[in-house]
Structures are given as C-alpha cells and as structure tokens.
Amino acid sequence: MISERPVVLKDLSYLQRRDFKVHGGQVGDQNSDVNYNNISKQIDEGVKEGFAEAEVVRGVLRIIKPGAFKDMLVNKDSITVSELKGFLRSHLGEKGTTEMFQELMCARQSDQESPQQFLYRMIGLKQKLLFQSRQASTDISYDHKTIQEVFLHTIYQGLGTKHAGLRQRLRPLISTSQVTDEEILRQVMKIISDENEHQRRLGQPPRQKATQAHSAKVETGDGNNNDKSQDTASDNKKLQTIQ
Superkingdom, according to UniProt (predicted)? Predict the structure, then answer.
C-alpha cells in the first residue's frame, strides 16, 4: 500500500514556482524591441515576488541577443540587479531624471497634436519621471508634489493658442494638485465634446446664409442704380428729339 504524504501549505509556492521571464521583446546591440522602463518594472516585480537576484539576472540575460553587450555582461565576475539596471539604462539610451524634468517643464503641444494626444504624452512623461525618481540608481530624485505641479503647469501653458477656450475652462480643475489624470482627461473630453456640439449648432450654414443675403442686397442696390441710369438716358433722348 502506497502511503500518501500530505503537502505542506508553505511548500505550495515552491512547487508552483516558475522561472523569472521578461516579456515584451529582446535587447540587441543596435536595435531593441523593449524599452528600459518596461524591463525595469518587470525586474522590480520579480524581486517583489521573491525571485533571487541571480534568477532575475539570468531571466534578463535570456532576452539579450548575442553580441558585444551580452558578452560584456556574461563575462563579468558578478553583477547585482542594481548594476544590471544601470547597464540597461545606459545601453537603451534612457533619459536621466534631470533631462526628463526639463522636458516636462518646457513641453508644448505640437501643431499635429490634438489636446488629447498632448495630454496623453504629458501623462506618459510624468509617469516615466515618477518611476525613475523612485529608482535607487537615479541621478536626482524629484518628489511627487513637485512633478505634479510642473505637470499641471505644463498642461495649462503648453496647450496651443487655438485652444484658449479649453485652457480657460480647464484652469479651475488643474488649480489643485490633488486632481487625478483621469479627471483631467475626462474634463478635456467633455469640453471638446461641448465645443464640437456648439460648432455644429452655430457652424457655417448660418454664416453662409447671412453672406448670401448681404450679396443679394448689394446686387439689388446695383440694379436700382442701373434703372436710374437707364431712365436718365431715356430722358436725354427725349430732349434731343424735342430739339
């Protein structure tokens, strides 16, 4: 008779354990399918889930294509997760916090961007800066309050001049730093929807009718002048006949 050995609950996590894997693409010497932020977040999640540093490093090395960069990492005697992230950031050309902060401060809406697209871009830049500021290996860290205040200031000042109405209606909402990205986006969408409805109601057709009415009036005035000229010519002919 085969005896059944009960499974200890604390062993379940070990039995179900998987290898640490990085998803999203590969890293090459010249081109990469995945950016630094993506890899860094997955590394942090792996550490939180209890993977050892050696397991995390092996998982990252598996997505690096053969080449000079991988050879350099493999040939190192030892490497920590923090060191690996530093190498990845340099190799993938990730901007430092100072550069990103300056970019957030000076950003403005491009001619090809809609207000929504500009907002999406600024939210993404803010999230990158917040994430980088939390990293131990970062050059300079910026607190959440400072980043949020600069973000809100840029949203107001960076919108194009043709969106002056949107800026004014958005100002009360973004005057408080506690406002969320979702609230700003929802308000922007509502303002744009209201403006589009306003344009549909008061759009081109009424203005075209007014222009046509004005043109008809001018033509009528010209017609009266022609009639007067014809009457004058007729009177002159009569005078010549009498003479």
Answer: Eukaryota
